[in-house]
Amino acid sequence: xxxxxxxxxxxxxxxxxxxxxxxxxxxxxxxxxxxxxxxxxxxxxxxxxxxxxxxxxxxxxxxxxxxxxxxxxxxxxxxxxxxxxxxxxxxxxxxxxxxxxxxxxxxxxxxxxxxxxxxxxxxxxxxxxxxxxxxxxxxxxxxxxxxxxxxxxxxxxxxxxxxxxxxxxxxxxxxxxxxxxxxxxxxxxxxxxxxxxxxxxxxxxxxxxxxxxxxxxxxxxxxxxxxxxxxxxxxxxxxxxxxxxxxxxxxxxxxxxxxxxxxxxxxxxxxxxxxxx
Length: 277
What we know:
- The chain is α/β, with parallel strands linked by helices.
- It has a single domain, classed as 3-Layer(aba) Sandwich (Rossmann fold), CATH 3.40.50.1820.
- About 40% of the residues lie in helices and about 20% in strands.
- The chain is built from nine helices and eight strands.
- Strands 1-2-4-3-5-6-7-8 form an eight-stranded mixed beta sheet, sandwiched between helices.
- The N and C termini lie far apart (about 50 Å).
- The mean pLDDT is about 95.
């Protein structure tokens, strides 16, 4: 039976679909424009958020509140999501897009599920090409953006992907908000990407905020202690600081008493303020 009530919608937002020929997948884009967008001729910075199906509303609320308090500029927010609301499909798609390698899934049933659906895990490379060659040109062509001012926001596997971008094509974004990055993936293969980047570059001219919740390392009900979210983040941060990159502005923070879930909103709030500070 249909409901007599209208669904809740977010003001100044819209949903658009974008078919990627690189990934061979259609993405659901959640797009928010500044409240004064229609009445101005200004160009705006863009914040790109992975896990758009779930995280876009949170980033929209936080960035809007901080903008109204003059702690952030007016922003265009783009949530990169998937054209489904099924949790299993969302999870498999993000493991395809965010993971840099096809390390074995946790158990046989999960591996069989990927095989059955024809989804290949560990395709961060094509997903990065989609962002650089299809998504950003699409947004820049359809909205008044500042094409030289874009920010990446990602959590967990999305945080891992953000670091993958950082060490492969850092110029994709000016700013990176990296929350609880899953550096443990595939025996910390991410650290080999960092080492390769350092061997071939003498600068990393971006602003980066990287954080984790203290309980992610200790007693998080969702996280295995062996994943070492806090320790791995600190190890990477120390390495980056020792590189001495003149253009790198790196800030890290461990949020006391926060878990893998509860740390998300404080990461967005603190991270966006830091990278735009």
